[in-house]
Amino acid sequence: MAAAGAPDGMEEPGMDTEAETAAGEAPARPLNCVEAKSAAGAAAAAEDSCAARSSLQPAPAQPPGDPGAQASVSNGEDAGGGAGRELVDLKIIWNKTKHDVKFPLDSTGSELKQKIHSITGLPPAMQKVMYKGLVPEDKTLREIKVTSGAKIMVVGSTINDVLAVNTPKDAAQQDSKAEENKKEPLCRQKQHRKVLDKGKPEDVMPSVKGAQERLPTVPLSGMYNKSGGKVRLTFKLEQDQLWIGTKERTEKLPMGSIKNVVSEPIEGHEDYHMMAFQLGPTEASYYWVYWVPTQYVDAIKDTVLGKWQYF
Predict the structure, then answer these.
(1) CA atoms within 13 Å, Cβ hemisphere of 265
(2) What pLDDT tens digit does each residue of the chain (311 aa) get?
(3) 0.70 cut: is pTM over it?
(4) Distance, C-alpha 52 to centroid of its chain
């Protein structure tokens, strides 16, 4: 006869507890090689997943006073270059073209030539930069009193322009010098004596013997022409013209039309010269000017003939 107990399909109370206790007390079975590898792979995958989630977390915001943030702002300001330097507005005029630029007032004439080179392609060695006369390379724009809106005149030719041009002026100058060597001094020739014998004009500009100066900002006046009348020379650098003025009229000559300039000291007054501008192919076209102060002679020749263009 069967023992009395729980109905079929029903477990007696306490059976599950006993089973769990038995399972907990049972010693763990060692894993074989396949099972061990599988468990290690699962653990590694779990670690990679955690690392990936960590990398997606946003980095903590940098505090306002952090030195790194301040350094990045400072570097951005420094990149401007020349910040804080006083700039001046200039109108650079070359070859009838105007260029509006801003340029540091404390930069030198040499640095200005480099800037002009970058704008026009005209090499600094072939530039003649003028602002109330030639701009010195070793002085700043502030030192020569350049003001905002100033016009800077540039005269010069590119290397290609120079090489493409024949040099009849050079040949004319050489022929003229050869002729001068053969002749007696100009001041002794009869055609000049009648003017020189009048003596030095009372209102002629003062001379400085042995000196070389830039062209003055005012016209050269108080001189005589071949007929003995008063004459003044005005150098209009903006128009690249020489104005020869008398009481009767003013001749406006393009400097490029003047073939040559000759001069000679006046005997007994070597601090003054007699000077001629050759306006045509022969000496008959010379326009004579007497009592030119010696300190301006070289500046006049350089301005009119443009010797600086040929290195």
Answers:
(1) 11
(2) 444 444 454 444 444 444 444 444 444 555 555 454 455 555 554 455 544 454 445 545 444 444 433 333 333 333 334 456 889 999 998 888 899 999 999 999 999 999 999 988 888 888 888 888 888 889 999 999 999 889 998 888 766 665 655 455 555 566 665 565 556 788 888 889 999 999 999 999 999 888 889 888 899 999 999 999 999 999 998 888 999 999 999 999 998 889 999 999 999 999 999 999 999 888 889 999 999 999 999 999 988 887 543 33
(3) no
(4) 56
Single-letter amino acid code for the residue at 180: E
DSSP string, 180-206: HHHSPPGGGSHHHHHHHTT---TTPPP
**Do β-strands 230-236 and 220-225 pair in parallel, antiparallel, or remain unpaired?**
antiparallel
Label each residue of 72-97 as H, E or C. Answer: HHHHHHHCCCCCCCCEEEEEEEECCE
CB 302 within 8 A of CB 237: no
Give the Cα separation of 188 and 211 in Å (integer): 25
Cα torsion through 282, 293, 247, 192, rounded to 10: -50
Whether 105 contacts 86, CB under 8 Å: yes
